[in-house]
Amino acid sequence: MLANIRPVDERECSRVLAEATAAQTPVAVLGGGSKQQIGRPMHTATNVSTKGLRGITLYEPSEMVMSARAGTPLEQVEDALTRRGQMLAFEPIELAPLAGGEPGQATIAGVFATNLSGARRVKVGAARDHLLGVRAVNGRGEIFKSGGRVMKNVTGYDLCRGLSGSWGTLAVMSEVTFKVVPLPEDTRTLILLGLPEEIAIEVLCAAMATPFEVSGAVHLQPSLVSRLWHEGLRQQGQALTAMRVENLTKSVAYRSARLKEHLKAYGEIHELDGDNSSAFWGELRQLSVLQGSDAQLWRISTSPGTGPKVVAAISAYMECHAFYDWSGGLVWAEVLPTTDAGAADIRRVIAMHGGHATLIRAEAQVRSAVEVFQPLEAGLQKLTRKLKAAFDPAGILNPGRMYADL
Amino acid sequence: MSLVSLPEPDAAIVSRRGTIVDDLRRLVGAGAVIGDEDGRRAYETDALTAYRRLPLAVVLPASTEEVSRVLAYCHQHGIKVVARGAGTSLSGGALPAEDAVVVGVSRMNRVLEIDYMNRIARVEVGITNLGISDVVKARDFFYAPDPSSQLACTLGGNIGMNSGGAHCLKYGVTINNVLGLKMVLMDGEVIEIGGAHLDSPGYDLLGLVIGSEGQLGIATEATVRILRAAEGARPMLLGFDTSEAAGQCVAAIIGAGIIPVAIEFMDRPAIQVCEAFAKAGYPLDVEAMLIIEVEGSSEEIADLLSVITEIAKPFAPKAIRVSQNAEQSAAIWKGRKAAFGAVGRISDYYCMDGVIPLGKLGEVLVAIAHICNKHDLKVANIFHAGDGNLHPLVLYDANDAGQAERAEQAGHEILELCVASGGCLTGEHGVGIEKRDLMRVQFTETDLALQMRIKTVFDPKWLLNPAKVFPLEGRGVALEVA
């Protein structure tokens, strides 16, 4: 029988996990469940949800810091920030709709546990770079903390970052404290159309190498442009290369003019102002161009200049539609469904070019059959297993979700 | 100073010193091993000079492979190892031990690759912090973290301590600027973490290793982000009648949505000493001063500084000085960057590195003054106001043993105050030996046990950088995952 446990406080969470360890009962750890279709399928009969741990516990806009209990909805966090003219700088992406789920289900701790960041990551850093402190319960049921509420902290080992990106396999977070930043006064997007991929990435990298603080740098293949929600752009029918400038209104005008001048050799540059610009990056945050498809989807991290080479190499093996983010360093690659999602070929390409690939969307049986997360080198794998044991010796937390033996 | 106790050296290891030195010479060549006493003496301390220990031997390897051989040998023979960059640690992080081999990375200082398209540099970690910026500045790029010791300190030491600097409010600290590491584990195994891409697969081992004070392994190579420099930067000075007003002004600036690239605070004693040294034009009739720097084009800078001036008005600044040219800017920063040296010219001092929430600045400064009065000592305060990192410099006379001990005691009380205010023991200098015994002020036994288990995962025999970070008592718990 499937049990759903929703602890109402940290102490209850501690008791639940201590009991699970004593009974060797594996548990699935979840927040809003918005990413349940990602990772290797697990065989757990018990869910431990953080949804009962809710509420913003600290918000000091002038210190750019907020604390919230783990299960606080991301929407609630962002609403509170917007009201005070602030935001999460790393622009967390929305994954649930990729697999047909409802948007708006994510919790704040789920964001940090998966370390999934959006377009602005290329300038400001990832979710993990904004996590200042965490309270959590490990597999033994022990309540621990790391970090704190201040911006700078090198006291002891940094377990916050250890937990970010661990997909609930090391501990159940109960409260997170994170850095927030002011909303930019204005935004503008510069767009070039129809560039070949190698050139497009060259443009994005050139833009990132200017002093104008480009805060988004993406390239969409034509097949994905046709899925944009923005009607004007959708109808272009050509590859789209976009860069974002954000700042005070006056600076945005100055910087985008300078950037246009800098890039004029690459072709005509179109602009999206204010709300139009926000809407465009808003839909990318929802991964609009990857929704509504049943193609299998990979998320590939590599060095920016290598992005087009990776896509070209994959395309030699299979049909592939690519959305480049992070000036080419993050590739979302849709491939036509096969029984292994092209894993063998894609991982061979990655091995040649450097980087790593995660299978984000595929049927459960495919995610059982192939490595969803990038297999680790032997040395890292050994450390990873020992770290898991240090936090969760009985292996009860999300067993098998990241790796079969973890 | 004598508050921190160091363990007795392992007599068996010390007695085998000659053999060990010979063995190390066979492993890496005689030229890379320092065995004589005068040579070892140069490595007996770091920037926390009150503590000195003559190391067993010093090895200066030239490659990852040599580091690996040395660590494998030491691991096999149960010999402790202390990694060392430039020895600029203010917390005793590089303090050797009589039964430990120092592995210095200073000879491994090559630039391996500069890739402007991908905005990364791959370097050996013995390169100095400023050395990285030096090789890319012709193209207007720089490496962002800028600790005050950046001329001397190595990237390796920065990785060990997760070093920050005055400009970290905008650009982050070491962890935010390192993408990949090659690292040698204590048993000699070489691992590579991350790479040239922005995020790593699996657990965030970079996050664990950076800032682990050389206790999990020795990094030998790093891939770091290099950033395009802003078009220009210019500071301004604001002087206030009270520290509270200065703190409130900082809160108002950030509250208005402006994040300057740096906001530095100095109290009256710090201003007086630094002005005497640097002739920077600091106002001498104020209780507190802010140095606020913004970046952009000249017009953007002028606009931002005038906005900040407006924001400051309700806090009644007694002095407002905007730098008019590069010379004035350099002088303003010279005063701040030379602050520790300037204070050092008039007195010995004990430099604290606590962090507090900005909103507590006023009350914390009052409490610090009270603590120092109680111990009959003077104090000057320097504060990275944007990020809450407070550096009280407790002044004392090193020739007076009583004063030295009182300074250390006052320092401990100040750090306890920082933690009680919602902050932490150390913002950028690290725990080292200095704050080791205060860790229980900030952490529970469970918190510490978990950190110690991670230490055991990487270094099961606890040979790397011994007697640092964790209180000496209660370490056994960590062995259970070995």
Describe what this molecule looks like in 3D.
Chain A has helices at residues 10-22, 74-83, 108-114, 121-124, 127-130, 159-163, 197-208, 222-225, 231-234, 249-263, 274-285, 307-315, 343-353, 364-369, 378-391, and strands at residues 3-5, 27-30, 46-49, 56-60, 65-69, 86-87, 131-138, 143-147, 171-179, 181-182, 186-193, 214-220, 240-247, 270-273, 296-301, 320-325, 330-335, 356-361. With 406 residues, chain A is of the alpha+beta class. In chain A, helix 12 packs antiparallel against helix 13 (343-353). The longest helix of chain A has 15 residues, at 249-263. In chain A, 57% of the residues are buried. Chain B is an alpha+beta fold and 482 residues long. Helix content of chain B is 35%, strand content 20%. Chain B contains 17 helices and 19 strands. In chain B, strands 12, 13, 14, 15, 16, 17, 18 and 19 form an eight-stranded antiparallel sheet that branches. The radius of gyration of chain B is 23 Å and the shape is globular. The chains are: A alpha+beta (406), B alpha+beta (482).
Outline the secondary-structure elements:
The complex is a heterodimer of chains A (406) and B (482).
Chain A: E1 3-5, H1 10-22, E2 27-30, E3 46-49, E4 56-60, E5 65-69, H2 74-83, E6 86-87, H3 108-114, H4 121-124, H5 127-130, E7 131-138, E8 143-147, H6 159-163, E9 171-179, E10 181-182, E11 186-193, H7 197-208, E12 214-220, H8 222-225, H9 231-234, E13 240-247, H10 249-263, E14 270-273, H11 274-285, E15 296-301, H12 307-315, E16 320-325, E17 330-335, H13 343-353, E18 356-361, H14 364-369, H15 378-391
Parallel strand pairs in A: 1-3, 2-3
Antiparallel strand pairs in A: 4-5, 5-9, 6-10, 7-8, 7-9, 11-13, 11-14, 12-13, 12-16, 15-17, 15-18, 16-17
Chain B: H1 11-15, H2 17-28, E1 33-34, H3 37-41, E2 57-59, H4 64-77, E3 80-84, E4 100-104, E5 111-115, E6 120-124, H5 129-136, E7 141-142, H6 155-161, H7 168-171, E8 178-184, E9 190-194, H8 205-209, E10 218-225, E11 227-228, E12 233-240, H9 243-255, E13 262-267, H10 268-278, E14 288-295, H11 298-312, E15 319-322, H12 326-337, H13 339-346, E16 348-351, E17 354-355, H14 361-374, E18 378-384, E19 389-396, H15 401-420, H16 439-442, H17 445-458
Parallel strand pairs in B: 2-4, 3-4
Antiparallel strand pairs in B: 1-2, 5-6, 6-10, 7-11, 8-9, 8-10, 12-14, 12-15, 13-14, 13-18, 16-19, 17-19, 18-19
Helix pairs in contact in B: 9-14, 10-12, 10-13, 12-13, 14-15
